[in-house]
Amino acid sequence: MIKTGLKGSKTVYTFPGTEKEAKNRIKWRENVVAYTFLGPALLLLLLFLIIPAIMSVYYAFTDYYLLTPDTRKFVGLDNFINLFKDPIFLKSLANTLKFVVWVIPLQIGAALGLALLLNKQRKANTFFKVAYFSPVVMSLVVISVLWLYLLNPNEGIINNVLTYFGVSAQPFLTSPKQAMFTIVFVSAWQGAGFQMLIFLAGLQNIPGDVYEAAQLDGMNKWQRFIYITLPLLKPTSIFIFITTLIGAFKLLVQPMVMTQGGPVNSTMTVVYYIYQTGFTDRMVGYASSIALLFGTIIGLVTLAQRKLVKEEDD
């Protein structure tokens, strides 16, 4: 860069070479600055996501055992064939799908209901927003331990309340029939506050004039909700549905802390089974094959959901 003089109150600079070369040099410098800032994040992404993912794909086709890493060998599709003969994996997959099917409508429905309640101007709205959102910012481990004490079949507060009203004490987490539904309730209670805030933002973006016009046309509250609120909340609802779907498939902490996958594997999920197989049993190759298959299933479900939503929009 060469200083050539002053033009008015500004210094005029000229660059050697053509104007195109000067622009290329400026663009190159900007790229260097950008990648300098991105470098640490890209390095962490490479070390803790990309490289482990590639290694996991490789290990999925081996019999890698953590305590004897030097003896691993390529086994092809044997791990995947054994998966479909593994009763615990099949049970964990069914449990995960059961959890997804139940928790999504319950959690999203609760979040939408809370958002509708808070959308009206009330003096205590701020307090209720904080109260409903507080479980989201708490650790899942803490929440799981808390509910573990509340749901104790002998000394838990909930069973004491049920007994007071004449209802017999329930086994909850100690029953194969009730354990997963109990975890569904706890998970929906914990996560609804986050979706509530997103729904609330979507509701507040709906123009009030639309509701006034609908009211003048004779629509009651239910009709305004069905024909105005829900259609205008569609983009928000799709976002919440996708994030809740992905989060539900990753269920791990609640069954790990509250039931350890029991009783009788009734709360064993795929992610928890991956953890047990890889870190407890140290069968890294087999655990990697489960992770690869499960990741593929989630990817296909997400793509199918996005395609259906796109076709509906078209």
Automatic annotation (TrEMBL):
The keyword Lipid metabolism does not apply. Residues 93-305 form the ABC transmembrane type-1 domain. InterPro entries: ABC_transporter_permease, MetI-like, MetI-like_sf. It comes from Priestia megaterium. The lineage of its organism: Bacteria, Bacillati, Bacillota, Bacilli, Bacillales. It is found in: Cell membrane. Its main location: membrane. One of its GO terms (cellular component) is plasma membrane. SUPFAM superfamilies: MalF N-terminal region-like, MetI-like. This is Sugar ABC transporter permease. Belongs to the binding-protein-dependent transport system permease family.
